[in-house]
Amino acid sequence: MSIERALIDAVMKVYQSKGVGKFFSIKFLVETDGEFVFEVRFPSDCLNPNGNVQGGMITSVLDDCTALCVLFSTQGKRFPNTTDFHTTFHRPLSLEPATIKASILKMGRNIVSVEGKIFKEKNTLVASCLHTGFLLDTHGMNK
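RESULT FIELD:
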């Protein structure tokens, strides 16, 4: 898949400047054979009472990274309006840099299914997700 680095850089510049992208410090690292890799650094505000990253925060990051995967794969023309999102938690995550890997499982004319996984140190799986969404055009997103 040929994805222009200029498109990725432009999207990430806007994304990292506000909202969730800024809050979670999500950084795009690389795309290889349709797998998109991101780094995330959760702020301490994301901790649950047990001292680990709260599951909803992990789900939020997975949601965003899988959506960015679709946006990049469609050359910035389409993004998923989520219709279904399942997260499975495998182990806790402390405040440490984490890696997210996202790849499209199937993209049709109107529906996309994306797999996402978040890993902590030593490539240890923390959580995985299946993100399904209705594909919307990006026209008018700046309104």
